[in-house]
């Protein structure tokens, strides 16, 4: 197994990315790690000579605020692009990056390419839930102009992912909507509802946004615009609450003491609610295990993403997806 | 001034609704309050004989889980419908309810009717923000199939509301989108962006969902589907965090003590983040001051909603909206 790592993406690149990779490499001697990026910068953080770590030099870096498709076209020797090419050329089975999310999706779509039958790959983070093991939400990739067929395909890809990765036999599939009745939502959602009902998936109906974190389903399907709003709203609300809490705690001696006593509780809570703790977001529907780790990834997050990629490959997730795509008589037109 | 109150809507009806109204009536002897609902039940909570409180008997109640339009058609003598009729017939200037949101919007649209030129009235709660006095978000009313013209009209209605109610001279109008560039989003949003740029409103561009609570704009425009997802996500995340916090605090003696010391801080925080504290949500674009108070409203929330309705009327908000609608050359077709 060979895993390509974009060493230059994320707030703590390359240091934390390289450290996370080295630690994983020591634990997984049978996996080859290909660290992609500016070699001199990468070498600063490699003090051991590991047989299963290779470095591939890439001169350029895609910045977090660059326009994805333009960046991809302009920076042909960017670390992320080179990592994606390794997957494309089957010199790697997986790629991991903590860099520009849009560029990650674009390199999955344009460089690596889609599984036969897939029209829109979906970015699929796991949302934390108070019960169960989280909900895979897809697509959150800000893809515009969804068609019913895309969402149904995402439901299938998400179900296979959750069943392979978490061992859930028949993952419960929900459709994000503004009410539980089948008649709710726009024409897109009504059509998707009907198609999911008729599918062989374990479709449990519409799910309202306020119920997601209660673990009401394993796979939640939505169009890429709505998913993006959902993800960003959740991020914004959670960070506002935690920041306000911090400010409140600093307010008096009593609250400072209270904050100290509650520190372990706060840490557990923050961890439990942080979707980053649930690993990176896979890009489902492309020809490889492509994992987007959060921009603020530290070495631990990178190690998690590596484990995720490893499991993705070991479980034959991609083959299962390809098989299911072939079995389906419905062909989707772009 | 005459304000109609639906005494039968909300989790704590009629008790808290009546108590809130009575308290407001004592403070505002110049306002007449018309309490609508089952008279015997209402009388249980009225121990004083106030000259400025009238009761209008209505036999039926629209339940919170009823299908709005059906309920409206079936229950012609429902308290909410009767209250709306009072506004329609100009026997009241305002109506307040803590009942079924869908039925509230439907009775605004169907019973009271729209201001001339308005196609879709918008439900517009104020979102809390850490800076400033909150953001009016509209539409969150789960209206489907928005057109660019509707959203631009909502921006105008929202701007007038925030300028009248909060004294903000030129409210900053933002457009909810998945990125800040004008090219972001679907065709609807691109068209709205252009129209808002060309309008006389203080349009400041696209706003991402994660930045709303930072107070980046005063009026945030979105279609009713997206707004509903936004609102419900925020509700779900906040309540999950607070519930988890409660559970964590109960975990040990130390955390219990910590929780006790932090109780005032938690209360302030919860209050600051609770959009209910920012008053009820007006339904903008109908011929009256119609305020939807939260389902869990207590007497304080009802008193807040009454103050809001009072201000809405006193400031001539409706006249200003009607004037602006007439001034605009652009006519909107349904």
From TrEMBL, chains A, B:
The keyword Lipid biosynthesis applies. It is found in: Cytoplasm. GO terms for cellular component: cytoplasm. It is an enzyme of class 2 (transferase). Its EC number is 2.3.1.274. Homodimer. Probably interacts with PlsY. This is Phosphate acyltransferase.
């Amino acid at each position: 197994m060979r895993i390509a790592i974009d060493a230059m993406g994320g707030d703590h690149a390359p240091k934390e990315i390289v450290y996370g990779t080295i630690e994983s490499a020591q634990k997984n001697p049978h996996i080859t790690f290909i660290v992609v990026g500016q070699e001199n910068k990468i070498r600063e953080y490699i003090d051991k000579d590991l047989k299963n770590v290779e470095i591939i030099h890439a001169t350029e870096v895609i910045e977090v605020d660059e326009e994805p498709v333009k960046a991809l076209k302009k920076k042909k020797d960017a670390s992320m692009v080179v990592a994606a090419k390794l997957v494309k050329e089957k010199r790697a089975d997986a790629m991991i990056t903590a860099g520009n999310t849009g560029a990650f999706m674009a390199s999955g779509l344009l460089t690596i390419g889609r599984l036969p039958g897939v029209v829109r790959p979906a970015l699929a983070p796991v949302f934390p839930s108070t019960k169960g093991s989280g909900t895979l939400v897809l697509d959150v990739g800000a893809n515009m102009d969804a068609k019913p067929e895309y969402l149904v395909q995402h439901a299938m890809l998400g179900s296979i992912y959750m069943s392979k990765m978490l061992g859930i036999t028949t993952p419960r599939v929900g459709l994000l909507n503004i009410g539980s009745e089948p008649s709710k939502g726009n024409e897109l959602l009504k059509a998707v509802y009907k198609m999911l009902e008729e599918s062989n998936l374990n479709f449990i109906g519409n799910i309202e946004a306020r119920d997601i974190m209660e673990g009401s389903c394993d796979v939640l399907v939505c169009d890429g615009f709505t998913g993006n709003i959902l993800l960003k709203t959740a991020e914004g609300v959670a960070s506002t609450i935690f920041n306000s809490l911090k400010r409140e705690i600093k307010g008096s001696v009593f609250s400072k003491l209270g904050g100290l006593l509650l520190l372990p509780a706060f840490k557990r809570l923050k961890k439990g609610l942080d979707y980053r703790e649930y690993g990176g977001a896979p890009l489902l529907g492309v020809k490889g295990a492509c994992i987007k780790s959060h921009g603020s990834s530290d070495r631990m997050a990178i190690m998690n993403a590596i484990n995720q990629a490893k499991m993705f490959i070991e479980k034959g997730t991609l083959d299962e997806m390809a098989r299911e795509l072939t079995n389906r008589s419905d062909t989707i037109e772009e």
